[in-house]
């Protein structure tokens, strides 16, 4: 979409007209050129001119907000003056953030995101604050600054879309749940695995995942790579030795690599005499919980970094 089409597009709201639409269109052109370097990413991006867009215009700094999705209506294009939108004066805001007159940056303001969602139906909005370099005339310094800001805004849009794309790719990968246990507790863990599977999860249980003749350690490592969580069933039978120690090492490595996308779930389960096992030293830094068998499934599901699969009617 050219700037002329963008300016005259059918829309809701007060519109975004020149010179503000020129700035946004220039940023989107640079953004499109950046996307050309990654075809898969480019195909995943929803057209920006089809998204709801709100420009909060100030004398020195402005804020561009764009919804993360498009809706089945003409997009909302709105320009609002800073003083109409904010209770805090622009100069007061700049006193605490003087660097904003020189470069563009993502603005992480939860209250603003909530307002955009509730008042304008924005979804997963991107919010960028930048110097108000719309009309620069013949001033060479301002022209250079405008070009710099246009490129920075485009780069921030690309970072936002790349993160969304990588999140999507990550979610499409297998999300197994590694079940670490001693052979003596196999019957209990097998039933838990069956229950998790019936709920739409994919438990990793050695007897199901490892083919005859497979390299044991390599299979266990692969199991952790495809998992989003490791559940350690700590009973009096559980001892931090052999492959259990290796599994703890792998779990810690995945936690460092995946961060919040990987959970270490440590469950202390009593035996028939009510006796609990001992949590291995290496995973004591993570929260563990004493549970009765009836609480195991709920505790695991609550600790996972993913939600259960969507419910569908049985065939």
Descriptive report:
It is built from twelve helices and ten strands. It has 315 residues and is of the alpha/beta class. It has two domains: 3-171, no CATH class; 174-303, Rossmann fold. The chain has a five-stranded mixed sheet with strand order 3-1-2-5-4. Helix 8 links the parallel strand 6 and strand 7.
Quick take:
It comes from Rheinheimera baltica. The protein has helices at 3-8, 20-35, 39-44, 82-85, 90-96, 110-120, 140-172, 186-198, 206-209, 216-225, 242-258, 296-303; strands at 51-57, 61-70, 77-81, 105-106, 126-131, 176-180, 202-204, 227-234, 263-268, 288-290.
For the structure shown, list the relevant keywords.
315 residues, alpha/beta, Rossmann fold, 2 domains, five-stranded mixed sheet, five-stranded parallel sheet, 12 helices, elongated, Toll/interleukin-1 receptor domain-containing protein, receptor, TIR_dom
């Amino acid at each position: 979409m050219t700037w002329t089409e963008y300016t005259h597009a059918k829309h809701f709201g007060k519109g975004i007209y020149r010179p503000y639409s020129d700035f946004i269109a220039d940023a989107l052109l640079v953004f499109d050129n950046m996307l050309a370097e990654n075809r898969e990413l480019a195909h995943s991006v929803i057209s920006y001119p089809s998204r709801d867009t709100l420009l909060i215009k100030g004398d020195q700094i402005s804020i561009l907000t764009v919804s993360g999705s498009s809706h089945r209506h003409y997009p909302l294009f709105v320009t609002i003056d800073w003083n109409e939108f904010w209770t805090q004066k622009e100069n007061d805001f700049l006193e605490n953030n003087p660097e904003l007159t020189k470069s563009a940056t993502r603005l992480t303001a939860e209250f603003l995101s909530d307002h955009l969602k509730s008042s304008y139906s924005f979804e997963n909005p991107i919010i960028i604050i930048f110097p108000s370099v719309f009309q620069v005339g013949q001033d060479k310094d301002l022209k250079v600054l405008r070009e710099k800001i246009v490129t920075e805004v485009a780069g921030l849009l690309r970072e936002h879309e790349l993160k969304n794309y990588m999140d999507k790719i990550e979610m499409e990968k297998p999300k197994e749940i590694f079940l670490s246990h001693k052979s003596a507790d196999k019957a209990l863990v097998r039933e838990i695995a069956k229950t998790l599977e019936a709920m739409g999860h994919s438990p990793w249980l050695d007897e199901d995942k490892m083919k005859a003749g497979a390299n044991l350690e390599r299979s266990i490592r692969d199991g952790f790579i495809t998992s989003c969580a490791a559940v350690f069933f700590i009973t009096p039978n559980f001892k931090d030795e052999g492959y259990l120690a290796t599994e703890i090492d792998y779990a810690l490595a995945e936690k460092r690599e995946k961060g919040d996308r990987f959970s270490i779930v440590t469950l202390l389960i009593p035996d028939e005499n009510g006796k609990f096992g001992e949590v291995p030293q290496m995973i004591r830094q993570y929260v563990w919980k004493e549970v009765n068998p009836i609480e195991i499934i709920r505790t695991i599901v609550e600790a996972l970094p993913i939600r259960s699969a969507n419910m569908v009617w049985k065939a």
